[in-house]
Amino acid sequence: MTATLPPGERFGTSGRVGINQRDVKGSSGGFSARDDEVGRLYGIGLQATVTPGVFARLEVQKPASEATNISAGLGFRF
Q1: Are 30 and 46 spatial neighbours (Cβ–Cβ below 8 Å)?
Q2: Taking the alpha carbons of 9, 15, 18, 20 in that order, is the dihedral positive or negative?
Q3: Which of the chain's termini has less CB crowding within 10 Å, N or C?
Q4: Edge-to-edge strand order for the sheet containing 2-5?
């Protein structure tokens, strides 16, 4: 679930809360391993309106694992 606050005309902040799933399999030299995990996901981000139909977003997400995800993207309103 993602929410943007405040819903301003030009800039906003976003928050994300959800569940993520990780499934890893590997094998080498006759040895194989598998690991899976389901956990929480949360993140914060900034959003800017480029045109009335296009916005840009930068977000940092923290899943349940040791990783931190940083993403940037464009969104289209229609």
Answers
A1: no
A2: positive
A3: C
A4: 2-5, 11-28, 31-51, 54-63, 69-76
pLDDT averaged per 10 residues in sequence order, the chain, 78 residues? 72 88 85 85 92 92 85 92
Phi-psi region of 19 (alpha: psi -120 to 50; beta: other; left: phi over 0): beta
Pair of tokens at residue 38: 């389901």
Tell me whether residue 4 is exposed, middle or buried, using C-beta atoms within 10 angstroms of its C-beta: 0 to 12, 13 to 18, 19 or more.
Answer: middle
CA-CA distance, 33 to 13, in Å (whole number)? 40
Structure tokens at 45: 């981000």
Q: What is the pLDDT of residue 7?
A: 66
pTM here is 0.64
43, 59 Cβ separation under 8 angstroms:
yes
